[in-house]
């Protein structure tokens, strides 16, 4: 048994037509970008037109899970589609605003992952439960063990789809602006404004049992 | 001449199958969500499969603009498509992590906008220039007036597509967790962890002309 390769194999769809130096295929970079995002953008085709919806997701190894009501459109479509629903799942972080001397070279520093593939509805109950734990732990690591697990009624109301990480690429832009040499003397400030998410003080639910302290795993965020 | 209606007209595609109370159609909410985002997720169909790419955008009134290299795939497709390229453009902000007592009721507080429509390539040079200014000012308000405008060569290398805001909806989730009454006594902390973007200290370009101070409009971010 050989170890999994450390990188995804590039395909026609995952080699960009532009910005190739920014492309990354190693699993470590891809997993890290995915795991830091709360929301992905899930694209699918309905009646011949594209639909892109934000949704929570979870990762277990080389599989992503998305869940929703059994009545939600993409989940229904994945369940009905045979042999599955073609999707494109994309995650993006903005890390900085890149101000160049020229309007043309303005940009943002970012990290993104694009996954192409076929989404299948999960029918195995154990896999469903594992996926739902992964979805909760994706929001707050360690949280699934510190909440009430889904009961039979909730499981029946929830559809889960899986998307394997096979056709995958990341793109990463870092660093300063790339001004043209002839623009360097222009009197415009040039550089990067870093952007990052911060967490505020946890706000207890209005009906929280008095005396119940915020758990330690929130401090680790 | 009558004033523009204050809200977008709901359509089959913009009325959600679930979470209807979260839906918003007023222009003020939609514009505010769009204007606070740096990146949108642009979905289109290629060879029958969905593609979702992160990209910068700008807004001028009721029109969104997306730009890219004349060699980029969606831009090429919009240029070749007759009468335009069906797209779905989505923007999402995550405002908080919602921890419920039950795994099932975990969620995030978010604001999202989904725009359905046909993207057309902009061929008028004045509209192209206005769109490029809007794209730069979308990253940093006021910046387009404080940078070198695109020259003829840069304009020729840039494709711009426009998407009118006609079939549009927003979704907004705010507030605490919605735990079931029978779960309120469970010994799990419940509440919201706020998340918001913060800006770091601007990092000057390595080749910045000495003595050029960071502009005031960066302090306004």
Written description of the protein model:
Two copies of one chain form a homodimer. Chain A is α+β, with helices and mostly antiparallel strands and 221 residues long. The first copy, chain A, has a single domain, classed as Pnp Oxidase, Chain A. Chain A contains five helices and eleven strands. In chain A, strands 1, 2, 3, 4, 5, 6, 7, 8, 9 and 10 form a ten-stranded antiparallel β-sheet that branches. At the A-B interface, strand 2, strand 3, strand 6, strand 7 and helix 3 of A face strand 2, strand 3, strand 6, strand 7 and helix 3 of B. Strand 10 of chain A pairs antiparallel with strand 11 (203-204) of chain B, so a sheet runs across the interface. Chains A, B: It holds the Pfam family Pyridox_ox_2. Chains A, B: InterPro entries: Pyridox_Oxase-rel, Split_barrel_FMN-bd. Chains A, B: This is Pyridoxamine 5'-phosphate oxidase.
Name the pair of protein chains with the most residues at their interface, and give those residue counts.
A-B, 97 and 97 residues
**Overall form of chain A:** globular
Radius of gyration of chain A: 21 Å
Q: Give the end-to-end Cα distance of chain A, rounded to a whole number of Å.
A: 37 Å
CATH topology of chain A: Pnp Oxidase, Chain A
**CATH hierarchy, class of chain A:** Mainly Beta
In round numbers, the mean pLDDT of chain A is 92
Please tally the β strands of chain A and state the result.
Answer: 11
Look at the helices and sheets of chain A and give the structural class. alpha+beta
Roughly how much helix do the residues of chain A carry, as a percent range? 10-25%
Oligomer: homodimer
Q: Please tell me the CATH architecture of chain A by its name.
A: Roll
Strand content of chain A: 35-45%
**Largest sheet, strands/sense/barrel of chain A:** 10 strands, antiparallel
Number of helices of chain A: 5
The stretches of 5 or more residues of chain A where confidence is low (pLDDT under 50) are: none
For CATH, the homologous superfamily of chain A is named as Electron Transport, Fmn-binding Protein, Chain A
Overall tally of structural domains of chain A: 1
**Sequence of secondary-structure elements of chain A:** EHEEEEHEEHHEEEEH
Protein name (chains A, B): Pyridoxamine 5'-phosphate oxidase
Organism (chains A, B): Streptomyces lavendulae subsp. lavendulae
InterPro entries (chains A, B): Pyridox_Oxase-rel (IPR024747), Split_barrel_FMN-bd (IPR012349)
């Amino acid at each position: 048994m050989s170890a999994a390769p450390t990188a995804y194999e590039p395909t026609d769809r995952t080699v960009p037509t532009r910005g190739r130096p920014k492309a990354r295929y190693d699993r470590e970079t891809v997993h890290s970008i995915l795991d830091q995002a709360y929301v992905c953008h899930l694209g699918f085709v309905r009646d011949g037109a594209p639909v892109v919806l934000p949704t929570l997701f979870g990762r277990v190894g080389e599989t992503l899970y998305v869940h929703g009501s059994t009545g939600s459109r993409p989940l229904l479509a994945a369940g009905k589609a045979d042999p599955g629903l073609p999707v494109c799942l994309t995650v993006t972080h903005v890390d900085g605003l890149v101000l160049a001397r020229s309007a043309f070279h303005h940009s943002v520093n970012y990290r993104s992952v694009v996954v192409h593939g076929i989404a299948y509805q999960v029918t195995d109950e154990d896999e469903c439960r594992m996926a739902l734990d992964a979805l909760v732990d994706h929001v707050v690591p360690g949280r699934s063990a510190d909440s009430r697990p889904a009961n039979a009624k909730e499981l029946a109301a929830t559809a889960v789809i899986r998307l394997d990480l096979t056709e995958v690429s990341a793109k990463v832009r870092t660093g300063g602006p790339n001004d043209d040499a002839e623009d360097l003397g222009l009197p415009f400030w040039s550089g990067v404004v870093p952007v990052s998410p911060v967490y505020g003080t946890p706000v207890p639910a209005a009906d929280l049992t008095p005396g119940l302290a915020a758990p330690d795993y929130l401090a680790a965020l």
